[in-house]
Amino acid sequence: MASTRDNLLALHKTLVSISCVTGNEAPCSDALKAYLSEHGWTVETQATGPGRENVYAYLGSHRKTRVVLNSHLDVVPPYIDFSEDAENVYGRGSSDAKGPMAAQIIAAQELVQESVIKEGDVGLLYVTGEEVDHIGMIKANDLDIQPEAMIVGEPTENVLATGHKGAIKFTLTVEGLAAHSGYPHLGTSANTHLTRILNRLLDLSLPSSPILGSTTLNIGQIKGGVASNVIPAKAVADVMIRVATSVDEVWHLVQQAVESYANAQTGKGEVQVPKISLDKTNWFEPVHCHVVPSFTTKAMSYNTDIGAWKHPLPAGAYLYGPGSILVAHGENEFVSKQQLVESVEGYKRLITSVLAGKGKPAE
């Protein structure tokens, strides 16, 4: 009989060896459907877009389970193939999030084999699009399942998260007037105004939380202009804020900063007053998780699919898994084999503790 380690590493290798960058999750969902069906799970799929499917599995015919184990199928680009040495597994998704996914599945299967869980106790939900727009979890709200609790698998280094930050994604656009750069008074530089506004945003005093820490702002992309000898007519910045308090509070500060700058441009004598627009494209509130005894706990600075689940979870949301977020999107993404194996026992303790009603809100 194969050991936990053998079963886990074999499944993990299968999953990491498949390229499933966001938008192309089908190869991974197909492999997962086949594996779970072969191991006795009832498997359903849910379309989330052309060629994209969530995978939902449960024991027998009782599809509404008390606890749902969840992670995401997609990975960030570029795909990096599987490799390993004696201590670690490398490759895209090895940590985020094929490690947690494989460990969850092995943990659930061992609890079934040990007669610890039964039909109606645990379901498995693996979704598309977490790395971009959370479309898989958004669609999963329509599955007509009402779990008491959800255990989400992300790289936490086998620490149980007390919560994680929310997020605001927005686009800042400035439209000016093109002109020859030798005659700047005949134009309005969109780039100049954009950089001034961004500096105001960087100087904001953003709120913090005693549990989740500081709210932080990242200017992810800046695009503007066509050539160095042309006054740029349009400039665009994509910005993401990791929110520690509330979306409304932080967004109000952003709006105030942008509006005060825009209002101050009237009457400054430019040939054209810049047109400034602010578009909030995606946002999720911070998440406060539940915890159970005997686990080390810590708040996480990233966000997950938990915020996209819109139904009540009376027994709480839990966030746990092997691997480190610090390497998750890098060129040397990896997970320790030892940490993978240890996470199986962690998931088993977590599942049984939640089913026994031992979870409580983190403080």
What does this structure look like?
Belongs to the peptidase M20A family. Its cofactor is Zn(2+). GO terms for molecular function: hydrolase activity; metal ion binding. It comes from Bifiguratus adelaidae. The model has no long low-confidence stretch (mean pLDDT 96). A hairpin with a 2-residue loop joins β1 and β2. The chain has helices at 4-16, 26-38, 98-113, 135-140, 190-202, 247-264, 337-355; strands at residues 42-49, 52-58, 67-72, 83-84, 88-90, 122-127, 149-153, 160-164, 166-175, 179-180, 208-209, 213-214, 216-224, 230-231, 234-243, 275-284, 287-288, 290-291, 297-300, 316-320, 334-336, 360-361. It folds into 2 domains: 4-164 and 286-361, Zn peptidases (Aminopeptidase, 3-Layer(aba) Sandwich), CATH 3.40.630; 166-283, Alpha-Beta Plaits (2-Layer Sandwich), CATH 3.30.70. Strands 1-2-6-3-7-20 form a 6-stranded mixed β-sheet. It has a 4-stranded antiparallel β-sheet with strand order 13-15-9-16, with helices on one face. It contains 7 helices and 22 strands. The protein starts with a helix and ends with a strand. By secondary structure, it is α+β, with helices and mostly antiparallel strands.
Please state the second-level CATH architecture of the largest domain.
3-Layer(aba) Sandwich
Span from first to last CA? 43 Å
Quote the beta fraction: 25-35%
Summing up helix and strand content along with how strands pair, one would put the structural category as alpha+beta
Radius of gyration: 23 Å
- What gross morphology would you assign? elongated
CATH superfamily of the largest domain: Zn peptidases
- Count of distinct structural domains: 2
Instruction: Estimate percent helicity.
Output: 25-40%
Q: What's the CATH first level of the largest domain?
A: Alpha Beta
Number of helices: 7
Question: What letter string, H or E per element, gives the SSE order?
Answer: HHEEEEEHEHEEEEHEEEEEHEEEEEEHE
Q: Write the CATH fold name of the largest domain.
A: Aminopeptidase
Q: Which whole number gives the mean pLDDT? A: 96
Low-pLDDT runs of 5+ residues are none
Q: How many β strands by DSSP?
A: 22
Largest sheet, order of strands side by side? 1-2-6-3-7-20
Largest sheet: 6 strands, mixed
